Fold this protein.
Amino acid sequence: MKRPQHGGNLVWAAALAKCSPDRILDFSASINPLGPPDSAKAALNAGIEALTSYPDPNYTHLRSRLAQAHQIEPEWILPGNGAAELLTWIGRDLAQSAATYLCVPAFKDYTRALNTFNATIIPQPLAPPRWELPSFTDIPAASSLLLNNPHNPTGKIWTKAELTPLLDKFDLVVIDEAFMDFLGDDEAESLEGMVSERENLVILRSLTKFYSLPGLRLGYAIAHPSRLQRWQQWRDPWSVNTLADLAAQAVLDDFEFQQRTRQWLTTARSQLFNALTQIPGLSPFRGAANFLLVETQTSSVELQRQLLERDRILIRDCLSFPELRDRYFRVAVRTEAENERLITALAAIL
Ligand SMILES: Cc1ncc(COP(=O)(O)O)c(C=O)c1O
């Protein structure tokens, strides 16, 4: 079976571990282990009855609820079938520019979306240990930027002050904030507040990681209405299904779950970080999101294989990030007990 490009491929992992997929403890996909919230489950159960009708193609209620959360008008929001769907339409827009600057390592799906429309990609390396932004001097006219903040796989968060000047350097700036919800309001470095002033800014958000609903698929873009109307004309009229629409509305009001998640993450991430630093040959990077990138002196592919065969634990190798090769792996932050299982297994191997 071919090595997966994304985390969370339990069928592939189970074949290596010689067990059923539900026996795998998955650290490879960065999904909140506290979810899905009860509010989502209740909305999904109640929503079964609504499946006899087509979804509202304008997603009127969901858009206005998201608009309220971001203090913007609803026509500046477009829900999508996961952030991944919206990346496709972003790819089509980016392909119109002379070149798209892409900070690497980068989420694999960016190249899928850009290559679909034959966009010209200019990779910009980020270097450890600080993963500072490139200086972006002498940018040719009509260039665009696609950036992920907080950044997958490094966990780096760039500040609003660092990002804002980029809006003057590029014709189009896309910030993928798929993991931004994991930061509390006082930590968040989202550029959401600038969208209505800057026509060349697109923000992408996902509900699948924070609310633990990757199988349901739900993301949204915040951007100028004319851009979003164009995307809507290109795509399938009902790309967000009724259940995803209803669950999203329910979780946005679930403040208890949001608060509990942020509290869990602060403690569990720092415990996991500290425990990883104690294991010989491993050097984790501090990260702002719900995962940690770890540098390893032994091959991550070999570690991944041993963890699967011995312990049925799946970590994310970084082979789909060619700049990192097999000297890095990524782990999601999970519950304290699950994190301890990972640490015990890693310590036994190393
Ligand atoms: C940086 C980044 N952006 C977007 C996505 C896609 O998210 P969604 O599940 O909403 O399609 C992912 C998924 O792993 C991701 O890591």
